Every structure is written in C-alpha cells, then in structure tokens.
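Late entry, evening session. Most of the bench is empty. Finally got around to the prediction I had been postponing all week. Sequence below, unchanged from the version circulated by S.P.
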Amino acid sequence: MRIINTTHFYRLQKLIATDKIYFGSHTDRDRRLIGPTILQNVSFDDEIMQDEIFGPILPIVSYTNIDEAIKKVKERPKRLACYIYSKNKRTIDKLLNEHSFGGGAVNDSVMHLSNSNLPFGGVGLSGMGSYHGKFGLDTFSHYKRILDKPFWFEANLKYAPYSKKKLTLIKWLLE
C-alpha cells in the first residue's frame, strides 16, 4: 500500500516492532510502500496501540476475558471502527453495545468500508460526520433552515395567558 507522504511512511514503519512480526512488513522507502503486516503478541501498552494506525498494519491483541478486553478499549479514546469476528451472539452484542466507535461490522470488515449505503466515519477525536454517498454530501453540506411566516395570521394561542382551554387545544394540536 502506498503511504500518502514520507512523514506517515516513517511513522508507520516505526510502529512495526520487528520482534512482533507474524506476517509481512515489506517496506520500500523510495516508493513509500508498506505491505500488509500482521503483528502478534501485542499488548495495549505497545506503541502501536497508542493511536489510530491508518495504514496496512494489523496488531493482534489476545485476551481470555471479554470484559477485560472491553475495559482496556474503553480506557482509550473513541475509535473510528470496530470489527468483531465471532459466532457468539452474547459476545458480539456485549462488544458492540459497551463501547463507542463510529461504525463497524460483524464477521466482515471490507464490506463496511466499501459499501456506499453505509455511512463511514468516527466519533470524538476519531472524526466527525459520516462519509460515502449521500452521507458524505450531508456531512460536508450546511443546510440553512428558514422559517418564512406570513404577517397575515398570528394566532394568540401561542401567547400567555394560558387558560385550561388554550392548553387543551395546544396539546391536541401537538399530538
């Protein structure tokens, strides 16, 4: 994958701990290329887990207790996305409902990103708004809301004093 600029290339290259490489790690500085890389035996204390990666590096963090894993994730800033691969409905629901992220998928990741019918975007420091299709247009558009009321009618219904009859009528109109 070609990295957008030299600064990000070096930032990503620095995140690849050579003692944790399970697969990949091919880099080409002159062309700013980093091949897909999987890191194993990663902990939440490792440098790669301190910020969003935005590159072709996948750190694998093992856990034995889902509650501990969720607790560790919740200690960090909100994430762009969450992907879970599991057949256990309780585990899936627990993960998806107990921490904040922009969007995600169950047992897939590519379709979430590539489907223009699903908004893609983060929350908090991970980004605001949603992108893809109409969602992106809405994010980058500012809609002016205008109320254009004519002068010829002004109901005193909305002004005090509010009698019991007036309140009953207002409630009826708002139902």
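Two things to note before I forget:
Residues 1-62 form one domain.
The chain has a mean pLDDT of 84.
Will write this up properly tomorrow.
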